[in-house]
Structure formats: structure tokens, C-alpha cells
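S1.2 Input.
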Amino acid sequence: MIAAAAPAAQDPEIVETPSGKWRDGENFPVGSLLIRRDLRPHVHAFYRFARNADDIADNPELLAGDKIRRLDRMAAVLDGAPGKDSPAASAMRQSLAATGITAQHCHDVLRAFRQDATKRRYRDWDELMDYCRYSASPVGRQLLDLHGESRKTWPPSDALCSALQVLNHLQDCAEDYRRLDRVYLPIADLDAAGIEVGALTAARSSAPLRRVIDTLLDRTAALVDTARGLAPCVAAPGLRCECAVITELAARLLRRLRKGDPLATRVGLGKADFLTAFAVGVPRGLRR
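S1.3 Output.
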């Protein structure tokens, strides 16, 4: 008598899922050749972890409760829970073990993405900056910690990461509202301009919405100015150059958003912007 075959083992549900948002238009280099070769895999591991968690929060097909469940599972795997259902969290856990870096930066971004799952409006600039403290600042802090940099680099790094975050919000303001009913433009600024979030559905920005965008760009320009102090206080030469390049990219994207309309088209950086930013930023970083 032939024994019945055992049922095939089922692959675990992978909690990470693509969102369908832009993944090929990043505003900054991720682990470029300026970063020390031995650290690049760890930079990529953190980026993949944060990107995949962000994709969960941005997936329009998932309910808020499911998003939070998936993000909580990523946190559990990061902290050592067994299972193969979160490859990015497993790889990040291995990276943290190899480098001795705290898991706090990873948990901070997870906190921000849990917030994204349920919070759709921001009252004012201060509330938006508090969100950026968890959604953006940990990215720079992780990179600085990998290089053993002093914490005196954190304030200008936070400013740079927050600037990039706000610029990304402005790039995607129409899509975020249309796909996710999520608006990062502060409601207080919309109220002051006499408009509501529905203004984001237009084919082109109205004059009042343009004033709101320009106000946010003014505040972001102040963040970029603060960020210019980052590269000079970074000790690692490659990272110092990378910081100078990214600061230049932020300044260039800000100028493009001054001239472009994010409702009419996605205002982004082109190949020439990246080449110019490297040409300007690397010498600036080498000079310290």
C-alpha cells in the first residue's frame, strides 16, 4: 500500500507588498559609490526596509487595520520573531547585528508609517515636522550612525531629510489625495488661502493653491539652508561628499517646484540634475 503524499508546505504570507507608487524617481542617491564599500549593503538593507514599510502604508488596496498588522509584523521580525514573512525586516535584523547599530531608527520609521495608515490630514507646519521626525530623520541618522559620526550632525541632517520629505509631498500632492485621500499640505495654510483640499483635484494649481505651495517652499528653503551645515561637520570623506550632493539635489528640486506645477505634471529631477549635483557637491564635500 502506498502512503498518501503529505500536503505541500504553504509559503508564509509575505507581509510586504508593493504600493504602486513611484519607486524609480528617488530624489537622492541610495548607497552611491561615495559610500564606503563595506557599508553599502547596510545602507541598501535600511533603504529596502523603509521602502517596503512605506509601500505597505501607501497601498490603496489595504485597509488601515491590515496595514498596521503588517507593519507590526515587520517590527516583530526586526526584533527577532521567527518567520520568513518579512524578508526586508529579516535582512535588516542581520544588518543591525553585524553593525551594532540600534534598531530605534527602524522602529521610528515604522511609527511614521503606522501613522500614515490612519492619519490623513496635518493641522499645521509643526505637526508636519513632527511627522518628518519619524518618517524622514531616521534615514539620515541611520547613515550617520553607520559611519560613526557625532550626534552633532543630527540637527542639519534632520533638516535635510525633512526638506526632502516635504519636497516629495509636494511632488505627489495630487496623487496622494486622489489615491489615498491623504493630504500633507497643512490645513491651516489651506484655510489661510481660502481653499479646501478639493483644490488638489484640479488639472492645474489655482492661484491660492500656488500661494500655499510657495509658502511651503519658503519654509523648506530654510531647512535646506540649515542642511548646508551638515557636510562640513561630517568626518567621513565619502559621506561628506554624499551629504553635499544630496543638499544640492534638494536645492535643485526646490527650484524646479518653484517653477513647475505638481498638479499639471510630476515635477522631478532629471539626469542632468544628478550630474550637476555630483559635479558641484563632490568638490564642496572634499573642501570640508
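S1.4 Remarks. The domain at 119-288 is CATH 1.10.600.10 (Farnesyl Diphosphate Synthase).
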